[in-house]
Amino acid sequence: MSSSRIEVIDLRDRVRGERVALAPRLRTLDERRILLFDNGKVGDRTTGKYSRIFQVLEDHVARAHATAAVSTLRHDLLQCKPEVVLSLVEEVADAGFDAVICALLDQGVTQPTMIFATELERRGIPTSLVCQGAGGRLATATSEHMAPGMPVTLLDMARDANPDAVASATDAAAASILGGILERGASRTGGTHRAVAAPVAAIPLLTIEGPDASHAYTQCLADAGLGDGLPFFAPTPARVDAMLAAAGIAPDAPLWPVIAPRASPLSAHEVAALAVAAGCEPQWFGVVAAAYRAMAAPAFRLAQAAITTHPGGTLVLVSGPKAARLGIAGGQGSLGPGFRANATIGRAVALAYSFFLGARVGGSDLSVQASPAKFSYCYAENLAKSPWPGLNADWFDADTSCVTVLKCEGPRTFVNDTSTTPEGILDKAAGNIVGMGGNLAAMIRAQIMVTLNPGHAAIVASSGWTKTDVQRYLFERARNERGALLGLEGLIAHPKWFAGLARFPVVERAEDFLVVVAGEPGPHSSVALPWGMSCGITERIL
Q: Domain 33-179, CATH 3.40.50.720 — does that match?
């Protein structure tokens, strides 16, 4: 077989943007104002154990630098929007602090704290990060994109460490933590390198040689730590141009705004190249682009969805007449293999996290076990066999097609081949939703996908029930006993009006149950439980 040589779009290092140089470190802490920043670690709300970090550090500073002024500020960054984080940065800078120590970076709080720390460095305030477990891995990986060389100290302690163990670990690491803001302790500086995002026209090409361009391209991406383990198609400029033309989208159209750790918007050109690599045909790119636009909505919480320990994938649900025209399956077996449109659209969306947000396995992707839902997760509503209007009609009208994205687990099946009443069907669904082991027991700001097969939907609708009736019934039935929830660390996330309830709903409103119909009649339907505090976002397919 003869060798060939082609040029393809280079999808490596697409987490582009300005890298902030580290601020000059301090010669001494004497007569300096030091802020110990407690980022509101979720587990600390009930135990108080992580406050021992700051007690130990304050003692160390007092012994070695008697004239230093130490202050402590507590603020919950976990649920903060970027603009709130930036406002807090300005408050700290205006207060005249000379250095900041942030603790404790642990999983979900790491990413917003990294934004906070990077912006402090940009303003000339040296910052040191104190981490635990996966938080340290994430902080180190994220700093490569945002502020190379950011001092990170990992405490040697278990996640369930008691207060005394936290204090002991902090005492052992105090020199490293304080060294992060001192000249002798800065691991390295970011220099003056400022890698500003290149315009779309300058996105580089990669020359591939060999008898099989796609095989060579797959290996090239694997060498860069990218990919899902499956082969890629070589995204030649001609294929990418055809993808954009089919959807009528300009190459430089932004599909995402600036989302950490990126410091530049994500262009349609980049997404089209990834869609080609994932195996999409040009006619499907409008669906992919709509899914990307939906993921950018603040309520989707994309930056944290990229790094969560949760195993879920990104569900892409297509609703409306375009689904059938594009060959996106919503009938029998549609949540599984066998449908190229479903598989490649879902894959093009799933790959966004690693290619465009730097979420690499073993680095900033913290998923503990992950799941097959992270490969591809796409299907359509079976409107032809649904007794109710689809989500497209709920949001727009029957002639409009749309995409709904939801960060969630894979489908959790429930079986019922005997009930002839709505209650009999939906009680099984509710039973699959409640429980102490999932996020919904402790966190409330989320939505749940309920996918009924046409047979189950017909039984429910035959009693005159609408989708609204289904939502209201599940809202009342899918509840946990108050006594079982007491003491869970995330309970504080529940709204105040829950305080007088004996049985707690798993979502805040009845409409947070997203009810759709897919598959064929039979004994099995499913629910998909969400990642914490994530909402489904619906976007029109252009």
A: no
